[in-house]
């Protein structure tokens, strides 16, 4: 899923470390119920700011959904175990007005491509039992869903990297750099 058009417009691309403030601002725009669904608890502005500041550490990869230079959705991939078999965890957030438009699926697809190319064998996502949209998204990608009282865990096995999957990520990284430069210019023009 390189830069397929979405029904709401915009673009999916990797976020770079220097874009942590954009990620923070996106997470702060989430309504209290949406914050609870994303973090599994009531997240304060301060805890969100701390999360965004640390989110890019440890080899994490974050993809974002941008409209007119503004981050409106994101997917985090965190590698949990490095020696084989590699495991990773993913988490998603999409602002309410951009849901049900293919954004979550596009973010999921891009994140799985990166996981695959990093040799991740198993990707998991945890969510609250009330987070039906996240469960539906995980099922769409054929994740095994495990239910318990406190949370729901989706588990997805990923194939290993191939020359084609590595090439796809390299191509998207190149277009992501161009898209990030355009986004920065849009933000600079708005600020000026």
Automatic annotation (TrEMBL):
GO terms for molecular function: acyltransferase activity, transferring groups other than amino-acyl groups. Pfam families: Acetyltransf_1 (PF00583). Residues 59-141 form the N-acetyltransferase domain. InterPro entries: Acyl_CoA_acyltransferase (IPR016181), GNAT_dom (IPR000182). This is N-acetyltransferase domain-containing protein. It comes from Blastochloris tepida.
């Amino acid at each position: 899923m390189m830069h397929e058009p979405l029904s709401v417009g915009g673009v999916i691309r990797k976020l770079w470390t220097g874009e942590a403030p954009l990620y923070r601002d996106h997470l702060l725009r989430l309504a209290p119920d949406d914050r609870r669904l994303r973090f599994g608890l009531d997240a304060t502005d301060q805890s969100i700011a701390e999360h965004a500041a640390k989110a890019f550490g440890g080899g994490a990869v974050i993809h974002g959904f941008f409209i007119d230079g503004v981050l409106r959705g994101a997917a985090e991939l965190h590698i949990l175990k490095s020696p084989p078999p590699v495991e990773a965890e993913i988490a998603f957030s999409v602002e309410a007005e951009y849901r049900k438009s293919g954004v979550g699926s596009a973010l999921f697809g891009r994140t799985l491509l990166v996981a695959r190319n990093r040799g991740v064998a198993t990707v998991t996502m945890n969510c609250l039992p009330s987070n039906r949209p996240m469960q539906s998204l995980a099922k769409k990608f054929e994740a095994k869903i495990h239910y318990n009282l406190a949370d729901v865990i989706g588990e997805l096995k990923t194939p290993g990297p191939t020359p084609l999957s590595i090439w796809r990520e390299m191509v998207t990284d190149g277009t992501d750099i161009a898209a990030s430069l355009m986004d920065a210019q849009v933000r600079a023009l708005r600020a000026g």
